[in-house]
């Protein structure tokens, strides 16, 4: 086991890797949410067509939409954990390198927010997108389950209501 502290060059190399990883995980969040929107947008017309045709596959499409939504939400949560870990490690490396005004320290410093800025975060915005998708699908399912089946209406002949004339029943 080596008791020597890591060299400055080693710390700088790790810092570059941490920075690249942080950028990747921050950007992947938006790629994943765009992918989620694309999947959900593609499933809505399929669901609508199946429901209009009275096919039971509409409920399977709803289940598939929920499966994708949950899977992508899990990916989002894991990505948050990974980029948060990289943020912490980047701040540690900056401390070890003597750079207390580096990128990670500045990001960490602006993270605690108050007022409107407390809710104006990418995480909360992305969460609203996922919640919106969930609400949309629940509304579609409820509308489908509570919709009254259309009764077939046949045109019937209007009988004249003329006083004094009797129309025989057919």
Could you say which overall geometry the principal axes of the C-alpha atoms support? Answer: rod-shaped
Helix amount, in percent? over 70%
- Regarding quaternary structure, how should these chains be classified? single chain
Percent in strands: under 5%
Strand segment count: 0
Structural class: mainly alpha
Q: Could you report the average pLDDT, rounded to the nearest whole number?
A: 84
Gyration radius from CA atoms, angstroms? 30 Å
Separation, N- and C-terminal Cα atoms: 104 Å
List the secondary-structure elements in sequence, H or E: HHHHH
Weakly predicted, low-confidence segments: none
Count of helix runs: 5
Largest sheet: none
Description:
- Helices cover 72% and strands 0% of the residues.
- The protein is mainly alpha-helical and 170 residues long.
- The longest helix is centred in the N-terminal third of the chain and has 45 residues.
- It is rod-shaped, with a radius of gyration of 30 Å.
- 12% of the residues are buried.
Question: Briefly, what is this?
Answer:
The chain is mainly alpha-helical and 170 residues long. Helix content is 72%, strand content 0%.
Outline the secondary-structure elements.
Layout: H1 8-52, H2 57-97, H3 103-110, H4 116-119, H5 122-146
Keywords:
single chain, about 170 residues, mainly alpha, rod-shaped
């Amino acid at each position: 086991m080596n008791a020597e502290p890591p060299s400055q060059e080693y710390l700088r190399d790790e810092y570059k890797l941490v920075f690249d990883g942080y950028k990747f995980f921050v950007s992947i969040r938006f790629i994943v949410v765009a992918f989620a929107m694309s999947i959900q947008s593609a499933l809505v017309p399929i669901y609508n067509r199946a429901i209009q045709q009275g096919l039971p596959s509409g409920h399977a499409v709803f289940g598939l939409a929920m499966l994708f939504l949950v899977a992508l939400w899990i990916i989002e949560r894991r990505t948050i954990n990974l980029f948060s870990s990289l943020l912490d490690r980047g701040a540690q490396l900056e401390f070890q390198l003597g750079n207390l005004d580096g990128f990670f320290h500045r990001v960490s410093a602006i993270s605690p927010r108050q007022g409107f800025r407390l809710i104006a975060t990418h995480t909360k915005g992305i969460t609203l997108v996922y919640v919106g998708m969930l609400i949309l699908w629940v509304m579609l399912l409820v509308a489908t389950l509570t919709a009254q089946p259309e009764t077939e209406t046949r045109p019937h002949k209007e009988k004249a209501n003329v006083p004094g004339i009797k129309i025989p029943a057919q």
